[in-house]
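Thread: "does anyone have the structure for this chain?"

Original post by V.I.:
We have the sequence but no experimental structure in hand. Need at least a predicted one for the grant figures.
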Amino acid sequence: MEKETVSRNFIEQIIDKDLAEGSYETICTRFPPEPNGYLHIGHAKSILLNYGIAKKYGGKFNLRFDDTNPTKEKTEFVDSILADVKWLGADFEDRLFFASNYFEQMYEAAVKLIKKGKAFVCDLSADEIREYRGTLTEPGKESPYRNRSIEENLELFENMKNGMYEDGTKVLRAKIDMASPNINMRDPVIYRVAHMTHHNTGDKWCIYPMYDFAHPIEDAIEGVTHSICTLEFEDHRPLYDWVVREVGYEHPPKQIEFAKLYLTNVVTGKRYIKKLVEQGIVDGWDDPRLVTIAALKRRGFTPESIQMFVDLCGISKSQSSVDYAMLEYCIREDLKLKRPRMMAVLDPVKLVIDNYPEDQIEYLDVEMNLENPELGMRKVPFGRELYIEREDFMENPPKKYFRLFPGNEVLLMGAYFVKCVGFEKDETGKVTEIHCTYDPETKCGTGFTGRKVKGTIHWVAAKTAVHAQVRLYENIIDETKGVYNEDGSLNLNPNSLTVLDNCLLEPAFAEAKPYDSFQFVRQGYFCVDAKDSKEDALVFNRIVSLKSSFKLPKA
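Reply from O.Q.:
Generated one for you, tokens below.
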């Protein structure tokens, strides 16, 4: 007997009930971003949730731009959102929509409300409307324009559409209940005058619908069955339902709210990111220190890692925060068996093997990934002159230092045992060259068992090394102080970016392309930067270090 599949979250339980009761025959979800900035990791949760539900129930998933506010919207943001949704793998097929394409239907819906006596043109200023609205404990006052005749309202609204009034002088309001305990139902504004050029409709319109009026109409037009949104819209649900009911849609969508995804010590607010971009603190909305989807992609995160992260966070009704370390855990888990483990020296110092033939280069067989033999082997050139990490040599080492120091022997990864016989310094006392001898009998892969060494270090052959810039990232926020100062400004970490210009890598890296990622031995996971990297000038971003204190909670 097959085990019955149990829905993973409360949203699926609602959908199961709706299908069982025949409320809907098929499921349609949507992701409705406003094109006023770049998407961030929180939006990824919404995208993957809506797409995942549509896919699970054999339904449809729409991408719709909620572009009803031309004051903040740009084509740049439309393009970035399209790229992000596609990269995450949320396939909207041919269902790409713009709210602005429905402006005519929204206008007609507003006229319908006026004719029903459910909407009126109001001359109160924004401040006066706010003053009349009342408080959580006191009811609002009715506008002196609330009882205008239907004929007068129709004429005024048409005049608004025809550009006869200045911005802010008139609005269209729904006529609901100024004494409602829900402030959103106290005759909300549903249209305002705004003489602005729209990115999609140009100068065709000088009145624009408000989000709370436009959104339910968009959902209803597209046949969306479940309008899944975050918890701040819970108090707006009665207005959502009122609009679709009063406008007269036969199969109204059902709004369901879930908790937002909050990450600790990160900046997601568009206002703050915009300021960081404008002040040149970051190099754009896709700076790898940010958690916009474009930034995560550029840094080297994968769609699979973000899907894993969203799955681990789960779906709930209660607000909570997730540690950024969980996101790092997910990318490590995704990459550890997929990516080659290769040698890169980030702070190089020269090592000369005095007894190795001067002009000889030999090619050693080295495993691509010790944890995944299926990735196979690669040839790594080895010669007399190498580079190693500066921290892998000490003149006067402390106890339990097993790397290179005078008289000590270590294994050069995938190669031979070498023993330090001397070193050279410059006039400042800095070590410039380390001298070793090697034992040809100790070549890796030959089965040598004569003796053991405690230390293994990585290296790069000097003659064939590829030069690269490597960028090491820390949190852009100073975690010891929290995200915000008392004045609302950001607590920035002055060490959020370290640039290393003289890094040396295996020659196989020369073939690396933008977004290719690798494990650098002992250093972490790195990705070719898609913005600044060039064929003859590679730039790598550190995605994440190798180790973390994060542990998955026990089930």
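V.I.: this helps a lot. The first strand starts at residue 28 and ends at 31.
O.Q.: and The longest helix spans residues 41-56.
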